[in-house]
Design brief:
Largest sheet: 8 strands, mixed
Radius of gyration: 22 Å
Shape: globular
Number of strands: 19
Helix content: 25-40%
Oligomer: single chain
């Protein structure tokens, strides 16, 4: 898109909204550098700044972020121009923060409580105290979902050490901060298979891999590596040669004995969706489709020799994998058992028990 005098670039990094202006040819300018003809605009007021932000958002056909909550602002924000974070927040410049995600599907929040429990465990491990008790956090997330009027999408939320200064220690942060945003997005069942590669980017140590924190640079580089090679995503292998996980999803396999195998969680994130799959999959054992369901250490040789392979994650919920490092998995087609497991999860998301699905009281 061609840049104009009021253009601004919006970037979304794992759901975290940052807005960066690229100003050109404004009246009030400041010369930069020796002999440079580049001029940097100086905003004379907050109203002028907001006017430029509103110009940008007015050109967006559909608002992708219908609502945000900020404990710094103290409420829910419906104006996308104001969905911003303090630059001195320690999550921004030091990565001292944790996050989690819940799904909104057909006006219901799926597995909110499970994700919220993991969220608070991650915060404890990151030594971040919540500014609110769990019950208030939950209430904020439900009210935010209602205010968004979003029937399908994702609810992402963060706990940060908070704003305060640019030092390494968060000692100067007066209080932690809680942010959340609803992202209007299509959540649908995946039926086509994808290609993956083995990542050459070192995976995070168990201390950080098992905590859902915002330090996602290894994940980003791993994902970029896959995309540069024409694949959907990558697979991490740990230092002992066992299968770990994808860049932001778990991975699972069906071996030729019709066993569902999921890598052990001692070095990777214990995904809420894959744990729900572990609870649902025994139904296929009862029906005689699967022989067993278990978590175990899986070697690369065993994994690449599997009959079926899949990613498992909140927004998928299951994505078939048919090619790994240019070699087919099984017969190179989407497996029947993969889709049977996908149907189990999808049905649970659409019509599961009240313990899994919370109706959003849309206003």
């Amino acid at each position: 898109m061609e840049k104009s005098s009021s253009s601004c670039d919006q970037k979304l990094v794992d759901g975290l909204l940052c807005v960066a202006f690229i100003p050109f040819c404004f009246e009030d300018t400041l010369e930069v550098g020796n002999g440079s003809d580049f001029k940097v605009h100086i905003f004379s007021s907050s109203s002028e700044l907001l006017e430029n932000l509103h110009k940008k958002w007015s050109s967006v056909k559909k608002q992708p972020y219908p609502a945000m909550y900020s404990s710094v602002f103290g409420g829910i924000i419906l104006d996308p121009a104001m969905m911003v974070l303090p630059i001195d927040d320690h999550m921004v410049h030091r990565g001292h923060g944790v996050f989690d995600t819940a799904i909104i599907l057909d006006g219901y929040l799926y597995e909110l409580d499970v994700h919220l429990e993991r969220f608070l465990r991650s915060a404890s491990e990151a030594k971040i105290s919540s500014p609110f008790p769990r019950s208030v956090l939950r209430s904020i997330l439900v009210q935010l979902s209602a205010a968004s009027q979003c029937k399908k999408g994702t609810l992402r939320y963060w706990l940060s050490a908070g704003p305060g200064d640019f030092l390494l220690s968060p000692a100067g942060c007066t209080t932690s901060a809680f942010y959340a945003v609803v992202i209007d997005d299509d959540i649908s069942q995946h039926k086509d298979g994808v290609k993956v590669i083995t990542s050459t980017v070192p995976m995070k140590s168990p201390q950080f891999a098992t905590m859902k924190n915002v330090n996602y640079l290894p994940n980003v580089l791993s994902q970029m590596e896959a995309e540069e090679k024409g694949s959907f995503a990558s697979i991490w292998v740990d230092d002992e040669g066992y299968i770990a996980e994808g860049p932001n999803v778990n991975v699972a396999f069906i071996n030729h004995d019709k066993e569902l195998l999921i890598p052990s969680f001692d070095k990777i994130l214990s995904g809420c969706t894959v744990k729900r799959l572990l609870a649902l999959a025994p139904k296929l054992v009862e029906q005689g489709h699967l022989k067993a369901v278990r978590t175990t250490n899986i070697t690369v040789e065993e994994a690449k020799g599997a009959a079926e392979m899949m990613f498992v994650g909140s927004t998928l919920p299951i994505l078939p994998i048919i090619t790994w490092d240019e070699q087919p998995i099984g017969d190179g087609k989407v497996g029947e058992l993969t889709m049977a497991l996908s149907d189990l999860l999808w049905d649970d998301m659409l019509a599961g028990p009240e313990t899994q699905r919370l109706p959003v009281p849309h206003v």
